[in-house]
Design a protein that fits this description.
CATH topology of the largest domain: Transcription Regulator spoIIAA
Radius of gyration: 22 Å
Number of helices: 12
Strand order of the largest sheet: 2-1-3-4-5-6
Strand content: 15-25%
CATH architecture of the largest domain: 2-Layer Sandwich
Number of domains: 4
């Protein structure tokens, strides 16, 4: 029996795809081991969203080759798609974001010939590459990939070039997959994609219609949307959110910049007035909702005044958390051609300041639940304590050992960052 270690870098879509690959490998008789063990096969599912992602992708490929020079080393995904000529001694199978579902055939080809296998294409596929899984071992929430590709072409982003055009999983397949997860005991399902809210653009349907169907699946307790653009929170989508208790009290809505000047340079599809009004509309139907976001610090052309406006915008919008990214140059994107690139030291300092704002906002949001009872899905137990999340993504520490994958009601007594401390009221 051949052993395989698989490492996933990057987003939830990669996590889903790697889990699908693990299922294929198990069905084909491979033994799944830790990536740091000595294995017969290493698979690195790479990321290229930032320079740091590229560095880590290259580093982990080299580590695998060094760990066992006799192993078959596979590199796949976005870093490879963006760097099609990447090749180093000991790298045996190379593929981008197409044919991941063919991994067993590719491994058999390599083991029979012991010659490098490269599967790279000039054009990414127009159709969704079907993947279907029924469980996520070791996890209490299940990811379902409903969509791939992006056509927004934000000026800083390489992803449309490495993931291709928007394409969607058929609705009946999505519904069956989620139904299987529910039957297998999963309490929470997370919808994920590269451009999730654009689901259905190629299927003569839309995201709102999908949500309506999903929330009617018997037994589903929680539905979470991994990320959605503010422009895709249509009145139809918000109606479903308003009328369904299954959809959690949390939305991740990327802002990227809190300055109209920078938003225009980024080729985002909204201005601040639109963003503020949409957030106000969301909070009118879900007053306690946690809204988290992404912000890029130090984008080309961002002045100190623009940055200070971004800080002010984030505070006015009262985000529950900000995911901060220093601007990263991506070859082939429009932002690379812009003038006035920000000094790396200034980018780093702006990112640091934004992280302080994020912590302040997060603690304020957490503190608003002190004295209140909340429902927590227990996900982990360590050092005699239990940890989990509420539907609005409070990370709760409970000072006793509880069974995982169960809901409990706790009363929040204090904030001990990065946790709320909750004391058990009821096991549901």
């Amino acid at each position: 029996m051949r052993s395989v270690g698989i490492l996933t870098l990057g987003c939830k879509v990669n996590t889903y795809e790697s889990e699908y690959i693990i299922h294929l490998l198990k069905e084909a008789g491979y033994q799944i081991k830790d990536f740091n063990d000595i294995c017969d096969v290493y698979i690195i599912n790479t990321c290229t969203v930032t320079n740091t992602s590229d560095i880590k992708s290259r580093k982990m490929i080299r580590h695998a080759i060094k760990r066992n020079p006799h192993a078959c080393v596979v590199a796949m995904g976005c870093f490879i798609e963006a760097n099609k000529d990447f090749s180093i001694p000991g790298l045996d199978i190379v593929l981008g974001n197409k044919d991941k579902s063919q991994i067993i055939t590719l491994l058999e080809e390599w083991f029979s010939k012991k010659q490098e296998v490269r599967r790279l294409y000039d054009h990414l596929p127009d159709e969704f590459e079907d993947m279907y899984i029924r469980d996520f071992p070791g996890r209490t929430r299940a990811f379902v990939k409903i969509q791939d590709g992006c056509e927004n072409f934000c000026s800083y982003c390489i992803i449309p070039y490495v993931r291709g055009k928007c394409r969607s999983k058929k609705m009946d397949v999505v519904l069956k997959e989620i139904g299987d997860f529910v039957q297998n005991g999963y309490q929470e399902v997370v919808l994920t994609g590269i451009h999730t809210g654009n689901y259905g653009v190629d299927l003569d349907t839309n995201f709102a219609s999908l949500l309506e169907k999903i929330v009617s699946i018997p037994g589903l307790k929680r539905l979470r949307i991994s990320s959605i653009e503010v422009t895709e929170l249509t009145s139809e989508v918000l109606d479903v959110i308003k009328n369904s208790s299954i959809i959690v009290d949390h939305l991740h809505i990327p802002l990227q910049a809190g300055s109209n000047h920078v938003l225009k340079l980024m080729n985002r599809k909204y201005d601040l007035d639109y963003f503020f009004k949409k957030i106000e509309e969301i909070r009118s139907i879900r007053p306690n909702i946690a809204i988290t976001t992404d912000v890029i610090a130090g984008f080309p052309g961002e002045s100190e005044e623009d940055f200070l406006e971004t800080i002010g915008t984030c505070k006015k919008l009262k985000f529950a958390k900000i995911h901060v990214f220093p601007y990263s140059e991506r070859k082939g994107t429009k932002a690379m051609e812009l003038p006035d690139h920000v000094d790396p030291a200034i980018k780093k300092e702006r990112a640091r300041r934004l992280l302080l704002v994020s912590k302040e906002l997060e603690c304020t949001y957490y503190a608003s639940f002190i004295g209140k009872e909340v429902s927590v899905l227990v996900e982990e137990v360590k050092n005699g304590k239990s940890y989990g999340h509420t539907d609005n993504y409070l990370h709760v520490e409970i000072p006793e050992v509880l069974p995982t994958n169960y809901f409990v009601t706790v009363s929040i007594s204090e904030v001990s960052y990065p946790y709320c401390i909750g004391h058990l009221s009821l096991l549901q």
